[in-house]
Design goal:
heterodimer, A: 162 residues, alpha+beta, 60s Ribosomal Protein L30, Chain: A, five-stranded mixed β-sheet, 10 strands, 30% strand, globular, B: 293 residues, mainly alpha, Hypothetical protein af1432, 14 helices, hydrolase (chain B), HD/PDEase_dom (chain B), HDOD (chain B)
Chain lengths: 162, 293
């Protein structure tokens, strides 16, 4: 079974055995990962920006680009694939939201992405149970249907799980 | 390998690097001239049958979704703009160098080219915020070439990524550039400058390549351009278009505020615009290559 690879602004879910969902090089972007342990369904979204208000016309074409429009679509997708509409029972994890090295934290899109994602999750009663966010390195994230494990890797830093 | 012998070997690798085509060179010289016109660009393309064919293929690719195909080179160049024509000419001339896998940075084939292309669009968007006069398409070209030194340096960095990242985390070096210099006696910006000189690139492009991580060291007359590329490079890395192990391993230089009327509130809009333009350009160039093969 081939992996589902998400580009910037993509989201997807799968319950197919042998499948993994992967997204490359998050940078300041954030991946929100959802797992429904009851049905062994996994989902992920690659969010680039916190708020769709900067360009509402972009939403129709790629809703997953923004936290505010993307996360509701990921939830819909998870419900459709898993058949479990009790979204509060999903396990949620976060990765990404890195920043460039800058003591003044000027280009803080990463931090704002993480906060925007969390606010939407909190509003839906879904706080993340694990996260690997911030710092100054880019992350590639893989989640497996079979194990539910979330693996993060970065060139020069190896790989680890959250 | 001693630092001295490494530098010698790097210099030999620079000498052996592919040459930029005469037309790509001329296009860059024209772009750097503030008084140039689009007609100057069209004249060069018209005299080069291969470049003409490629420009027509790109403009008529599905990525631009034209209702009626364009068959005139004048219209094609007007539609694509000189930035895309320069991009096609550079890709034809030294695309193999820029598409190489870079094992030294743990980066796959094509990552450097995508990073450069994203940086080019982001630098062009940033250049719109210039406090002084600036040719925004020059920022595009500078963005496209700024990391060319990595294509040479990569093979000398083999197996060093973990140590370089560790040195930065431990504070032994300030950033990846410092790590490269400490390890081999030359960094990718210096190597890029050597290459830029051998390709006889205009001085502003040489400055952008040499100082994109240290814009305050650039000659005053080129500093605006260099800051545009500096920020474009950072935006590309933030957006996931880095070049492997060195992604985001550099400092932001706050000095840009003296040269650019850029408010960080504009950042999401610039990221969005650069992403859109990058996607379209990448699709049109990729389709062009597929048609060729």
């Amino acid at each position: 079974m081939s992996d589902l690879v998400l580009g910037i602004g993509d989201f997807g879910a799968s319950a197919t055995s042998g499948c993994a969902i992967k997204t490359y090089a998050l940078g300041s972007c954030v991946a929100v990962i959802m797992l429904d342990p009851r049905t062994r369904t996994i989902g992920m979204i690659h969010i680039a920006l916190p708020d769709s208000k900067i360009n509402p016309s972009k939403v129709r074409e790629r809703p997953g680009y923004f936290a505010d429009t993307g996360l509701p679509r990921l939830l819909e997708k998870m419900v459709a694939v898993s058949g479990n509409s009790n979204t509060r029972s999903y396990v949620v994890k976060l990765a990404g939201g890195a920043s460039i090295m800058d003591p003044n934290d000027t280009f803080n899109i990463g931090k704002r992405n993480v906060l925007a994602a969390k606010k939407i999750l909190w509003a839906n009663g879904m706080g993340p149970v694990a996260e690997d966010v911030g710092a100054n390195y880019s992350r590639t994230v893989t989640v497996s249907v079979d194990t539910g494990e979330v693996t993060i890797s970065c060139p020069g830093r190896g790989q680890w799980k959250i | 390998m001693t630092e001295h012998s490494a530098v010698e070997e790097i210099r030999r690798a620079i000498e052996k690097a592919p040459l930029l085509s005469a037309n790509a060179q001329r296009l860059m010289q024209i772009t750097a001239d503030t008084d140039h016109e689009l007609g100057d660009v069209i004249d060069i393309v018209k005299c080069d049958a291969t470049l003409t064919a490629r420009v027509l293929r790109v403009v008529n690719s599905a990525a631009y979704d034209l209702l009626n195909p364009i068959s005139s080179i004048d219209r094609a160049v007007s539609y694509l703009g000189e930035r895309m024509v320069t991009c096609i000419a550079i890709g034809d001339s030294v695309g193999n160098l820029m598409n190489r896998p870079m094992a030294g940075y743990q980066a796959a084939a094509g990552e450097l080219w995508r990073h450069d292309l994203f940086t080019a669009f982001a630098a062009r968007e940033i250049a719109r915020c210039a406090r002084g006069d600036m040719t925004i398409d020059l920022a595009f070209t500078a963005g496209l070439l700024h990391d060319i030194g990595k294509a040479i340096l990569s093979e000398f960095l083999h197996g060093s990524a973990e140590n370089l990242v560790g040195d930065i985390d431990a504070g032994h070096v300030e950033n990846y550039l410092g790590g490269e210099k400490k390890l081999l006696g030359m960094d990718h910006a210096e190597i890029g400058l050597e290459l830029a000189k051998s390709w006889q690139l205009p001085t502003p492009l040489q400055s952008a390549i040499a100082f994109h991580h240290e814009p305050q060291r650039a000659p005053e007359e080129d500093r605006l351009l260099v800051y545009a590329v500096h920020l474009g490079d950072i935006i590309a890395m933030m957006n996931g278009f880095g070049t492997g192990s060195d992604s985001m391993q550099y400092q932001l230089d706050q000095g840009y505020q003296d040269y650019l009327e850029f408010d960080t509130k504009q950042l999401p809009g610039i990221i969005l615009e650069a992403t859109e333009l990058f996607r379209q350009a990448e699709a049109s160039l990729t389709q062009n290559q597929e048609t060729e093969s």
